[in-house]
Amino acid sequence: MGKGDKKTKRGKINIGSHGKLRPKRKKFNVRPMPTKDAQKKET
Prior knowledge:
By secondary structure, this protein is mostly helical. It is built from 2 helices and no strands.
């Protein structure tokens, strides 16, 4: 268990792969800010 082991986090960092232990970073969804016109329509 170490740098050569595909099942450990350290091994995945060394090999350069991803998986359950080292998932890829997901970009989170950002909603656009509501405009002033949209805020007036809601009220």
